[in-house]
Fold each of these.
Amino acid sequence: MTSEIARELHLKHVIELNTNISSRGFMRIAFDEPMDLDEPLWRYFKTERFLDLLRTGEFYFAAARQFQDPFEGAVAVLPPGFPVDPRYANLENGEKAFEELRRLTKISCWHRASYESDAMWQLYAGAWKGVAICTTPNRIAAATPFRLKPEFGHEDLLAGNVRYVDLLKVRLREGMLHRFWYKHMAFSWEREFRLVVSLRGAEENGVQVPAEGIKVGFDVPTLISNIFIGPSLEEADVDAVRQAAKSVGIADRVRVSSMLGTPKYT
């Protein structure tokens, strides 16, 4: 089989996956383009947060305004030292509306990679002492019919890969919600996949939306393909992780980090 035919077959497979996942009605692809729904996605946790996930089956989705990234949702970035026009010192009506959207937009971030990441272990898993899980977009779609409140109904999850652009040179012309899949080029190392739910409609229908994050229920055994024990996780925590995995029927998916391997020099 030639490489060109192989690429065409792969593209056809990806398009079919996108069509199937969109037809399920509770997770939609943010952009009208092929996306590999079998791509590995990683999430790194401190141990207590991982145990809480297995105990409750709930993931925390942060409000867009909670992130440390000061450019979250920005359409451009002014160069450092650029003079501030006093006419723009206060929020204009459009910016006030966007700040409300940042409150109503809840986001879960994942790392796209075919292999574990030492940087992610250090940043998000308590300096190698946490736990990582691996999943795919297909598994996420199968694992959650998102619902804010039973009396309100279902909310669509929007999913997509983050696009990184040089906001010093580009001014985005994207709609309000799609901006959350664009980030400044300085963050491209994150290789981020995002799940986003907008609760704007929920609030308009009388549901009280919290100012910060919300918890979203998942079917954990469907969601998780593998669990990786951090390189520096203490033995008591390792036992707790294994017991928690056993309690939800996925003990066979626990793995140890490749960083626990023995180096050979000759």
Amino acid sequence: MLNNLLSGDFPRSRILSVILVAIVVGLTVLPFVVNGVRPLNTAATICIFILLVASYDLVLGYTGIVSFAHGMFYAIGAYGIAISLNALGSGWGAVLIGLVAGLAVSVILALAIGAFALRVQAIYYTMITLAVASAFSVMVIKLSGITGGEDGHGFEVPEVLSPGFRLVEEEVLGAVINGRLITYYLILLTVIALFLVMLRIVNSPFGRVIQALRENQFRAEAIGYRVMFYRTLANCIAAAIATCSGALMALWLHHVGPQTTVSFAIMMNILLMSVIGGMGTLYGAVVGATLFVVAENYLQIGMKQVSSSLEGIPVLENLFHPDRWMLWLGVLFVLSVYFFPTGIVGKLRERRAATNEKAKVAEQVVRTETSSSSSLPAA
């Protein structure tokens, strides 16, 4: 059952398995364990970015394409929901229309980018995607009549997802079952479902082909695989999933704007999460997104406590001042890349593989010694 669910792609590391189980269980039970707006908002953001980073890993880690346009598809999903709900009212029909429209626009753009830009190699493709993303960002700001410009769009969501909605009046296990909690579990279940779909994709024959293209494009092309077709299809699938993550973020925030969708910082964050977690694993998206979002939300609070405890020691107090949290966040990421060059997931898998190899060698030595001693003549 578990083998089918994970498409045979297990973590392949006990430590990694424990980390992944802890993250999934933590995200599942958090609303009933911790009260407050910030923890729930952090958990929802982790879920959404797990999906977004995993979709980017499908392009970067599995296909070997470095794209700076991936955040654009995320923004299309968010704006599709916002524009539809504003124009058609706060119903599920409007949500569906916005999502379908966003998916259609994203796939068409991904298809166009793949058809024209993927013909060039390496840095040239990256620069083209950067130019497309920049043009889209400017368009979002200029088309203020549709997108809301720099102020963005606020909108009403379906009643069942609104904070004022209550499924039951009494608290359940200390938590209020309101629209906010329903939205959170809708996001969590959607992310889990789409993540499992991506696992199925990368472990299918199609997934093995795009990995072959990443490892040696010329050899795969010589065998007969059409490079453009497979890379473009991978780009379209990743764009569609990124669009879904943007739609989920819009439903969570009830507002979209340039700073939360098309900012270049978002694309850089996606890239950092992918590198820190480990490219070409999908599980790296879970670890990388969780570490990044938690650090981004709670590092400043932790530094404030450290600074308060060091009060009276001028140099250390100033060094750990909460205003310097970005400095320490950068230091943490540099250290993580230095000590985990293949990402946290890659490092853990390498460590497990090395341990298994040593065990096999030791077992082979024991067998050889046993065979040698049994072949000796009796005294």
